[in-house]
Structure formats: structure tokens, C-alpha cells
Specification:
Layout lengths: L5 H11 L6 H4 L4 E13 L4 E12 L3 E7 L4 E7 L2 E2 L2 E3 L3 E8 L4 E10 L5 E4 L11 E4 L20 E8 L5 E4 L2 E6 L2 E10 L6 E4 L1 E5 L7 E6 L3 H8 L2 H12 L8 E6 L6 E2 L4 E5 L15 H9 L7 E2 L7 H9 L1 H9 L1 H21 L20 H17 L1 H15 L2 E2 L2 H12 L4 H9 L6 E7 L2 E6 L7 E8 L5 E8 L3 E5 L5 E3 L8 E3 L5 H10 L3 H8 L8 H9 L4 H6 L7 H7 L5 H11 L6 H12 L5 H15 L3 H7 L7 H13 L1 H13 L4 H14 L7 H8 L6 H14 L5 H5 L7 H15 L1
Parallel strand pairs: 1-11, 17-18, 18-20, 21-22, 23-29
Antiparallel strand pairs: 1-2, 2-8, 3-7, 4-5, 4-8, 6-7, 9-10, 10-15, 11-14, 12-15, 13-14, 16-17, 19-20, 23-24, 24-27, 25-26, 25-28
Length: 772
Amino acid sequence: MRRPTLLLSLALAALAGAQDLPKQARDRHEYDLLDVDWRVRIDSAKGAVAGTVVNTVRATKDSPFLVFDCANLTVTKVTVDGKKVPFRADRSVLAVSSKAKSGGVLKVAIDYHGLPEAGMYFVNAMRSFPAKTPIVYTQGEMEDNRYWLPTYDSPNDKATSRGTITVPKGWSVLSNGRLVSKANGVWRWAMDKPHVTYLISLVAGPYTEVPDGTDPVPTSIWTPAGLEGWGKDAFAGTDAIIRFYGKLTGQPYPWAKYAQSAVADFMFGGMENVSATTQTIGALFPDSVKGTRDSTGLNAHELAHQWFGDFVTTPRWDDIWINEGWATFLPHFWFRETQGQNEYDLQRYDTIESAKGAMRGNPNRSMVWDGWKVPMDAFDGYAYPGGAARMFALMHRVGEGPFWKATQAYLKEYGTKNVDTAQFFAFYSKALRTDLSSFEKQWFRTPSVPPTVKVRRANGKATLRQTQPTPFTLDLDVWTLKPDGTWDKRVVALSQAEQSVDLPEGPVLVDAEAFLPIDAAYPDLTKDELIRLWKAAPNLAAKMRLSGLFSGKVPAEEMEDYAVIEEDPRMTVRLMSWVKDPTQLLLYAKHPNERVRQAALGQMGNVSSNEAILKELRETWSNTTLNPDLRMAALDSLYKLTKDATLLDAASQTDRFDDGYRTWALDRLVEVDPGHAREVALRSLNGNVNEPVRLQAIRILGRLKDKPGERTVFNALAAMMTERSNSPLRAAIGALAEYGDKAAIPLLEKRQNHGLHFVRGDVANALERLRK
């Protein structure tokens, strides 16, 4: 055996004193990861994993040792090309002695085992509601696969992968790529195209695979046994979205199959693991609520990632909009394809409004941002709607046809590769034959609040004034509604803080069709002009922007009239808060569209009640054949209007597919009878209750606290700090912070270095609160 080099010896020696690897060792990535061949055995009862991973690498320089990400795992043996070598592991990385020469290919095999507190999650059957079976799943993004799989765990390298998973009898396993074999509890999967390693995943348990088409690839829905129908209601028809995305982007679906699985105790809505998306079990629903529930948005977002995020991937979290912005952007076009222009306009409006909200909330952040402390910090309103809104702005500037043609070329150029913001705009500038450097600078590199254009009319001219500190350069659609009811449409090149424009007489709309993340102010607009604009609005997105101007200009009773005459049910739902007339609400409560009915029933709790309203609410709540979401809306409004405590008793004894009645009742009980609520919540911690009720019980105990002289609640919450599941642990941390006893500080300090960044963040916030 060759003796370790001096640098490796120093690095390994540092670990002998229970220290972390020196930074110069920790940050070394002196190889190209080519393949990850991982084999694991799962022990769900112990929450344990044991395995071997062979990382095939090509050295990019001569190196005395190789470094892999390996967090809180016990490594028992390492070989390089079959020969045992020295190694040391600290709390986050593994240093392996090597004879790496630049260009040389090595196979590094690592034997390990551990009890993962992040990355791999074990949900027992009692806690997997609405499932009744155990579930094991992994969640790698951002950098958590290292807690169960020693490999390179950053997004700037791609490799093929193979997974071999051994599970208990009767279990199934979903992983990435194509299924190679399954026999005697051993499942083998292979992913033949390169991808980043945070996308490596497995989901295991007593699952049922529900087929969902074969064109262009086998597509399926994996649900815990007993929830097959719910899976179909939530995700059936995904194969059609795959075909549409392939046609729109010019890039056929790039992987061997597409499967979606549902897991309990999931910290996200969904995760785009390559060819094998993981969805929250909360996305599933029974047929009884199909009129008010829809998981298409989640489905379409995670599927879009198979192109944007998996096939093309940002190399660093600073540019995460390349993944998340595009996955937020692409589904709008599926909704336009299947639900029409109105749905497209309204969803685009929502996305742009969310993007503006992110800018207002953090005006010192730019789209490309290196100010994060943990990668999750970058996954915010800038990354998702912010990225999508800017793609709408770019598409509107260059035209939809050229935009998609450039996108098709982009995917062809960068498929299975990494791409950052600079590369993105360099490519699109070339493909579109237009210089996008100023667009990139102002929308992606420069922190700002949303640009605001204030429109003033005087002396036959319109003055467009930007009120933010630094003027933007905008090709601004400026439409004037002429006296004859037609639009004068112009594009104004706006670049100064204030510009005068000759426009015909009439009220003005800027960014008339709502494609830019900007605000508009019309201080001179009269009520009559606003009504004219409303009636002539070019689309529902523009109408929603105008709706924000009604308050203060239009009397409430007239606002209700304009809400009532809207014919599109989507607008009716959005404007339901304008409706105060009980008679009209009663009419809406019988509407054929269940979303309108739900909104009307909810609005009844915000108006003066009468016997007819109360009768409608009681009948709806009592009708067990109705959509449970309608019953919930009626129950909540009925309680608001009557404060009838017997409703809480009735709700707590009524089953619901998500146990929503019981969680609702427990929350309201805190106000009515805190002592009884405390007793119920304490019983729920260890009693035979479903997980949503248990989590609600943990949360409210922090508010309720103990009776004077008692420690029952505190001790119960303290005991929860040993939880392995992330949801109850996080709920307990929050409850201890709410309880406010400094005796919790030592308990929380023990969790400061927890593997899951969400838990670390919760602990930091709780400690800050308790130490004040």
C-alpha cells in the first residue's frame, strides 16, 4: 500500500482530534464524476441504511486525495480500483487517499451505514395518513443526499447512476431511469444519461403502480396501497402534458420513463427527481372533492423540471431561477392549451403579482444572488414567480414565435449540461439576434423594487414618470381608450425618469395586456374612466389589475354589481369579496361550478347573517353527500356567525379524507375552552389519532402552555424533541418557542447541528426568541 502524501496525512491527522477537515481539503473537487453505482439495504424499523457506492471519477489534475460529500455516516471501508486505501470522514466530507493522475479514471468504492436524520426519511404506518402503510423516501435537493449516499453532492457536475435497493418482502421501489430487474426484494434501476446527484432518489414501501399511458414513454403514478383512485384523480393524464411539452420546446421527453410517487411527511409540494418525481401525499384527493381540488399545477411544474432543472441544470444556487423560474413559466402554456386564454391570462397575472411581491419584500436582492447562507435561502419568490415573470417579459419583448425557436435551440445546445445566467443570455442573444445585455443587467443583476410608471394627463399630453430610484429601460405597451370605444395602441420606448408622450384623449393603460412585473399608477383617473377601462379591458389579467383601483373610487354597492355581471366563474371567485348581498350569495351557493359555491359559502361568514343564510349553511354542513370542501366552507362560516360550540363537537366526531374537520375543531377549541383544548391536545400526542390532528395538537400546545404550577405540556413538548420525522419535530420546536420557557434552550441547542436545514433554521429562530 502506498503511504499517504503529506497533504493527505495532514488532513487525516486533523480528524484524529475530532476536528473537521481543513478548508483547503474540504473544497477540493478535482475530478469529473462519471457514474454513481449505489446499493443500499433499508431497515425501516430502525430508520437505518447500509450500503456500498462506487463513484467512478476522472481526475482533472494530479491529486493526493479525493473528497466526497458524506454527512454523519459511518464509513467502514474504501477501495480505489479494488485496492483498500486510507480514509477519514468528518461530519460532512470523506477524504480518500488516491494516486489520481490528471485524466485518469478511478473507481472509488465506499462501504457505509448510518441513521440518517436528513436526506432519507422513514415514515411508519401510524404517521403516513391518509396512507396506512410505512414509507421510506429520499429528498436530495439541495445538498442532503450526502446524509445517505457518499458522493459528490453539488449541482455543478453530472453523472450517470445505477441504484440497487433491498427492501422488506411485499415492498416496491421507485427510483431513477429504467427498471433493470426486481426479484426477492431487490430492485435495480439504471439512469443512462448524466444528471446532477441531488436528483438521485428512491421511494419504497407497499406501493401500487398505476399506469398512465405509454406515449412517448411509460408513465405511471405510484401511490401507497389503498390510494390508487386518489392518485388517478390527482395526476391522471400526465402523458398528455409530456407530449405537449415535447412539442412546445422541440425537445422530446429526455428520459426512459416518467413516474410520480406520493409520500407522507414531505417538506415540499413536489420534487423533480430525474424521471421519478416525488409528490406530497397532500396532493392526492378523492373523487368527492374533484370539483374544488386540482393538482395539475403541481404536476405540470414538477414535470417541467424534467426539461428545465434535470436536462438543463444550473451549476450553482445563485442562478436557481434557471431551474425554478422555467418550471413555473412552462405550465402556463399547458393551461392555455387545455383551459383557454382566460386561464392563461389569470395565471400569468398571479405569477407576475407574486414576482412583484418578492421584489417589494426584498428590494436588496437581485435575481442572480450569492447572498444566501444556506441554499434554501435562494428558493424564494425571486426564483419561482420572479424567474417566470422575467421570461414573460423577455417573450413579450422578442415575440412568442422567436422565443420558442430560441428555446428549442437552447435545449439542444445545453441538454444534459450545466448552464448559468451569463451563458443563458449569451445564447439567447445570439439565437434571437438581439443584444439582451441591458435586459439581463436590469432584470437579473440589479436589485430593485418593481418599476412603477405613474401616468398623468395634462394639456393634451401624457407624462409617464418612473418613481423607483433608478429608471428602467422598458418597451412599454401604452393603450389609450378613445371616445369611440376603440384602443389606440402604441409601444413607447421608456428609459428616462420622466417622458412626455402625445396620446389621443382618453384613459390610458400601460403594459395593457399585463406581461411585465411593473406597477402602474393613475392618480388622475376618474371613476367613470375606470369603469370604461374595466368594461373594455383587453384581457382578464388587465381587469384584475384594474380591480385594485376600485376601492376608493367606486362605491361598494356598485363594486358588487360589477362582480355579479362577470360571466367567467374564475372572475366570480376572485371578486366574491365584493359581494355583500345575502340574496346574491344564496344564488351563488347553488351555482353549478363548485368553486363558485365554495367561495360564496365562505363569503357568507363575512356578511350580516339572516335566517336564509343560516339555513343554507346548516343544510350544507349537514349534507354528508356533498363535496367535503363545500361542507368545510359552510361549517367555518356558520361558526363565525353563530359561535355555536356544538359545531366543534360535531366536527370533532366527523371523518374527512384529510381529517380537516377535526383539526379545524381543535384549533377553534383553543378560543372556546382552553383547558379542554389542552386535555384533548395532550391526549392526541400519543393517542390513536391521525397525523394531521397530532401535528395540530403539538402546535396549539405552545400557545396554551401549562396550568400554573404544572409542567405537563412542557414535558410533553420536550419529549417530542427526539422525533425522527421532520414535521412533528419542527412543530415541537415552534411550540417550545411559543411556550417561552428558557428551560427549553438546552434541548434546542442539542439540535443546532441537525442535518435538515429546515430544522436548523427553526432551532436558530427558537433560540433567538427564547434568549431575548
